[in-house]
Every structure is written in C-alpha cells, then in structure tokens.
Amino acid sequence: MKRFMAFVRKEFLHIFRDYRTLIILFGLPAAQILIFGYAVRTDLTNASIAVLDNAHDEVSSELIMKLEASEFFTLSHNIKSYSEIDEVFRQGKIKAVIVFPEELSARLTRDGNVTVSIIADGSEPNTASLVTGYTTAILNDWSATLTNKVTESLPVINTEVKMYFNPNLESQFMFVPGVITLILILVCALMTSVTIVREKEFGTMEVLLVSPLKPWQIVIGKVAPYFFLSLVNVIVILIMAWFVFGLPVMGSISLLMAECMLYILLGLAIGILVSTSVQKMENAIFISFLTLMLPSLLLSGFIFPIENMPKGYDYFSMLLPPRWFVEIIRSVMIKGSGFSFVWKETLILVLMTVFFIVLSARKFKVRLGEGGK
Amino acid sequence: MNEQKVIEVDSLVKKFGSFVANNNLTFDVYKGEIFGFLGANGAGKTTAIRILCGLSRPSSGKVKVAGIDAAHNPEEIKKRIGYMSQRFSLYEDLTVSENIELYGGIYGMRMKEIRTRTPELLSRLNFTGYADTLIRSLPLGLRQKLAFAVAVFHEPEIVFLDEPTSGVDPITRRQFWEMIYETAGNGITVFVTTHYMDEAEYCDRVTIMNEGRIVALDTPAALRQKYGTASVEELFVKITRPKKESV
C-alpha cells in the first residue's frame, strides 16, 4: 500500500505541474458551461425584426406594440416599401420582416380574416423557425382575444401548451447535462489514455513494470487521481449550473453522484483500453477524439434528438455510453426521477463498464507477454 | 571475488511459438561482479533480461535470481533488484528529490529513510543544491548518472543496466563506469548490457550471445587470448559472424 501511495502521489504531481492538464481538467468545463449556456442558445431573446406597415391603422399599431412589448423581439426598422425588404435582409441584422396589408382593420371587420405576412431570413433556419413561431404565437394570441370579444359563435380550438419540467424551455436545461456527459468522457478517457501512453513513450513504463508494483497497481494508480478529479469536476459544474443559470438538481444528489461515478469508471475503462492499443500519445488523442468526442457530441441525443435520426444511426447511438448517461442525468437532474426510472440505462452502463474493464485487463496482460499476474 | 552465486541460470529455454529466443542458456553470476552481456540486436539479450527481472517466465530450465525461482516467484525477485534502461527512466516534470522519493517509495523504503539518505546521495554525485531542480532542466549525462543512483538507492542485491550509456558523451561514460565500480565494490552485483565494445573491457566477465545461444563466456582477457584477438570488439565480430570469416 505504501508503494502504491508513493505512486499515486507522483501522479498528482504530474497533474498539478502541467498547466495544460489543469486547463483541460478545470478550465474546459467552465468554458463549456458558459459557452453552451450563453452563446449557443436555442431559445430566442431580442431578435431584431422590421415592420412594413401598409395599413397605418389602429389594429396594426396595436399589433406592433404587442410585438415590441415581448422580450423576444426588438423592433429596429420601420420600412416603407417591399423593395427595401431585400436590402435589410442582406445587411443581415434583421431576422424577420412582418408585413401588414393595406386596410388591415377594415378588411378584418368586413371579411373576418386577413393575412399578415412574416418573411424570415432563411439562411439561418433555426432562428427563422423560432422567429416565425414566436410571431405567429403573438398574433394568434391577439386574434384569439378578438374572436372571443366580437363573435362568440365561432368555435375555435384553443391549444394551451405547457412545457413540463422546463416551463420556459431554457436551453441550459438541455446543455448542462450534455456538458457533464461530454466533459466526463473527455477527461476520463482522453486524459487517462494519454497519461498511460506517455509512460510507454518515455520508457518509464518499463521501469514501473520491473518494479515491485503489480501491473494492476500501476493502472489503478494512474487512473485514481482522474477519478477523484472528475468527481470534483462534476461538483464544480453542478455548482456553476446552479449559481449561473439557476438550474437546481431536482432529484437525489447521491443518486446523481453515484451515476456519475459509474460513468467516470466507464470512461476510465475506455481510456485504459485505448492506452493498451496505441504506442503514441498523438494516436491516443486522435482515437479518443474520433471514437468518443464526435459521436458523443453528435449522436448521443445531447444536441440532435435521437428521434430524428435515420434508423441506422439510432441503433449505432445505442452503442455509445453518452446516449444512456444523458438520459439518466436528464431524468435525475431535471425531472427529479428516482432510480426506478433509470435502472435500465444504469444497467446498460454497468454492463458496458464490465465489458471494457475485462477487455482492457486482457489486452494489458497480452501486451505484457505472460508477465502480469 | 566472492564466490556466492546471485544469479543461477541452468538450461534456460524461452520459446515464442516455434521461435527459440533463448536456446539452452547456462551461466552463473557472482556477488559483487560486473557481468557484461553482449550481443547484436535480436540475439536474445532482451528476452533473457526480461526473464531475469521477473517480467517473463522461462519455457523450461532453472532460473534463480537472488536465490528466488524466476518461474514461480517473479514478484519476489522484483523487490530485490534495481533496473535502469537505455531509455530514460526519470520523470522530467518532477524534481530530483521527488524522483528519488517516488522510486524509493515504490521499492518499499520508508519516507524517513529516503529523506535522510537523499542529501548523502546528492553529495556523492556532486548534486548538492539540485534537490528541487526539475529533471527536465538537467543535461542528459547528469540525468543518466542520477538514474543509476536512483536504481541502486534501495540497495538491491543486483542491478540490471540495459544499455545505460547509450547516447552519453565519453566523459560522462567514464564517470558512469566509476559509479558502476563503486557500486560493485559495495557488494551490489551489476548486470550490464552494452553495445560499446570498449565498455566490455571494463567488465569482470562478459557473455556474448548470438542467435539465442551463448557463444562465449569468460573474462575479457581470457577471451582475447583464447581467440587471439587484440580487443573484445574484434572478438565479437569474429565469433558472431563465423560464416563470413570461414569463406
């Protein structure tokens, strides 16, 4: 045990002496949380819109006021004619132009309906669909009150949408679990594979293997600090999420931490497996990035919904640990679900962990010849 | 020289599939001896060292290191030997004293003992004042000397040096060999591989391996005399390439 502790101590020294490791360990999570939390938003605030008001009557004024009053839009232009529309879009600041037809209120009273055009900048499809969606909602809202006032005879189906668990559809609710998922797999798999391969590359692994340390002690000693630091990382991210975005953990914190530990263990096992397969640090980084980071980012359901994927991708994503972990952590953090709701995903992660540990233990042995016990 | 055997190898065979890496090796190494192990790349040196260090098991034959059977108890051997390889073995991002503490710790020394003996080791190497210097900022020659001192810091019975002077300048090599003599004088057996033939002359006895077999084993002087050559280098060329010579 004393031998082992001397070894673990050295591993901590490596980490704390290398500012690059520290940046990846602690800078990256903070940066990701802030980037995803603030910059990459799928909800809408203060989008610039322009209005082409051909009516200039009380209805159009009222609607413009409504639009302006909402926190989603800023009315930055009043344009005079259709020919200006092209120009404002080309300037790029305006996300949508709302066109009110002539004699808006007159036609509304006469015909009972009228069409308002919403022209959006389609070069940014996400923003465009959000802007048109929000505008439509505001206009519908207004016409609904009108319908109720004027004619009570018109039967209309009113839909009332309520977003369960996330009433304001805040995108941080989606990103914080995603960031934890990504960071853990990155830190665990990438960093451990690199730190083990580094010993091989510098020839120090040979010296360690000749020493009285047993091979499993070497591996555990190398990854133990990362296990510990990853847990610290999770706590830092959760605290940040709470203070910066007001995102509390709805479910049991101990369940959340236990699931995180399982996932960290899985990441470490993958890292060890990668380290037994390559001889150079660059290869370790490359493999970890290609096989873990990108698929995790794109296929885990963290950003793009799994439901929208073609069938093949859907099955492929089942092989990715992050897919299951995102599911678990969303349930526990945001829905406040207990273990009985996530046991299936947990079981899958446990099986994956066992699989990777067994596989890497066998590979480690083979690589040593018949050496290790 | 002491007649106590610290390494006993009898009919050692190591096969990888049908390839015979070590073919019937038999030799003894005595306490306090400097034992040179020569051979071209692929001659089976590395395989033999791995077995002696407890990293690999013999296919057949008897191997005892420090009185312990290498086939049955390799982990016990590891505690009693020191090892230094041609490839650099100290951690560049740790300081001199941190490296000493690490290896001392791995070999089961008490922290207190490590702390009291470190200054003594540093002064012997003329390293006093370097305790908190990162290895990275030391020149290669100093690192190699330090690596050797660290390899014998826990006072093993035998130290294995695998081409320890590769890439080191002649002056440092000379100093390095002085350290080896001093170590052997303290009763630690030195088992060294090298491809510098002049270094072979410094050994008490040398073994020359070729294609998995031991083709010569004696003191450098006796070997020179037997084969009628002026140096071990000439001798090495002569006996590892017999076919060329006979044509």
Please tell me about this protein's structure.
The complex is a heterodimer of chains A (373) and B (247). Chain A contains 14 helices and four strands. Chain A has 373 residues and is α/β, with parallel strands linked by helices. Chain A folds into two domains: 2-40 and 170-367, no CATH class; 47-150, abc type-2 transporter like fold, CATH 3.40.1710. In chain A, strands 2-1-3-4 form a four-stranded mixed sheet, with helices on both faces. In chain A, helix 2 runs parallel beside helix 9 (215-245), helix 7 (172-202) runs antiparallel to helix 9 and helix 9 (215-245) crosses helix 10. The longest helix of chain A is centred in the middle third of the chain and has 31 residues, at 172-202. The model of chain A is unreliable at 369-373 (pLDDT under 50). The longest helix of chain B has 16 residues, at 170-185. Chain B has a domain at 25-92 and 157-246: 3-Layer(aba) Sandwich (Rossmann fold), CATH 3.40.50. Chain B is an alpha/beta fold. Chain B is globular, with a radius of gyration of 19 Å. Chain B contains ten helices and ten strands. In chain B, the strands form two sheets. Chain B has a six-stranded mixed sheet with strand order 6-7-8-3-9-10, with helices on both faces. A four-stranded antiparallel sheet of chain B has the order 2-1-4-5, with helices on one face. In chain B, a hairpin with a 2-residue loop joins strand 4 and strand 5 (68-69). Helices cover 38% and strands 26% of the residues of chain B. The model of chain B has no long low-confidence stretch (mean pLDDT 87). Chain B has helices at residues 45-52, 74-80, 96-106, 111-124, 140-151, 170-185, 197-200, 220-227, 232-240, 242-246; strands at 5-16, 19-30, 34-39, 60-65, 68-69, 81-85, 158-162, 189-193, 205-210, 213-218. At the A-B interface, helix 1 and helix 8 of A face helix 2, strand 6 and helix 3 of B.
